[in-house]
Amino acid sequence: MVSGGYPPFGQELRISADGEATVALTSLGGRRRILHLTVAPDELARIRRELTAAQLGELADPELTCSDCVLYEIRYEGERFAADMLTIPDGLEPAFHRLDRVIRRAE
Question: 7 preceded by cis ω (within 30°)?
């Protein structure tokens, strides 16, 4: 999930085990659009590798340092991690960028 910024917005990406994905986009005023796409098997495998390598369960949520930054939350295999755009750990950046590209493709 991605939220924040000004004006406020929300983006939620859910990817099923078979690559079927749903993107929910929420704008100021609560207007919501739901988009559907399929993540290719090779891209899905890369996402899984990147999230596994990041070891979400080992990461502590950093102190959020920015009042109007974009906030991110990842849930994967029972683990959760949240950060703002200034506190994403280096090990998670590849996964964040790849997930962001999936969202952009849906828009």
Answer: yes
